[in-house]
Amino acid sequence: MIIAVDGPVAAGKGTLARRIAEKYGFHYLDTGALYRAVGLLMLKEGQDLSDVEAAANMAARVGEVSPEDPGLREESTGGAASIVANNSEVRAALLQYQRNFAHRKPGTVLDGRDIGTVVCPEAEVKLFITATAEIRARRRFDELIAKGNSVSYHDILADLKIRDARDQGRTTAPLKKAIDAHLLDTSKLDIEAALNAASVLIDNRL
Ligand code: C5P
């Protein structure tokens, strides 16, 4: 079984996808980390983020970035990721890895932007997670403050809106709800309620 969890930045996809994977004993893939790894390599090597060829070459080297690299979680890396994610060669280079992962047994949960639409249109359960921009920015702000970063809520909100627009506006695999995806608005649901709602849909397909 493949479970696709898509949605905009900081909607709560990662937390929900991890909880689903834990509950059902499925493998979990954070596909954003692949784009972040490309963005991080570009930043580390001082490449121009709009250099299509350099980014495509970096996509072949994502295995060099440790999942534990703290640079992966930085805001600057997220911004770089959303720029290189616009590059169709980067997307094509990362596609096969994601598809192979998706077919691992006994099941998988993938979170990202285009899992239900492009990577795994055949997924048995598709969830599209949203929340208002203000709530998502507030969560990201609280998370960064808790980690000891000094950031401004307004900068986070502005940055999040730019990333949303970039992810929704690109021509290759834009962020959008698959027609057969179930919408979960986490502005109104806490993680336990979201997990319960997802579990009902999954249990129906097991
Ligand atoms: O999910 P996360 O915020 O870590 O993803 C970082 C960036 O990678 C996103 O802003 C998006 O542009 C890109 N991404 C994507 N497709 C995915 C996952 C992430 O384009 N499946």
From TrEMBL:
The subcellular location is:
Cytoplasm
Name the chain's protein.
Cytidylate kinase
The yes or no answer to whether the keyword ATP-binding is present is yes
Q: Where is the Cytidylate kinase domain?
A: 3-196
Q: Which Gene3D superfamilies match?
A: P-loop containing nucleotide triphosphate hydrolases
Reactions the enzyme catalyzes: CMP + ATP = CDP + ADP; dCMP + ATP = dCDP + ADP
What organism, scientifically named, is this protein from?
Answer: Sneathiella marina
The EC number(s) attached to this protein equal: 2.7.4.25
UniProt entry keywords in alphabetical sequence: ATP-binding, Cytoplasm, Kinase, Nucleotide-binding, Transferase
Q: Which family does it belong to?
A: Belongs to the cytidylate kinase family. Type 1 subfamily.
Which positions bind ATP? G7, P8, V9, A10, A11, G12, K13, G14, T15
Which Pfam family name is an example for this entry?
A: Cytidylate_kin
| HAMAP family documented for this protein | Cytidyl_kinase_type1 (MF_00238)
Q: Name one GO molecular function term.
A: kinase activity
Its EC top class is transferase
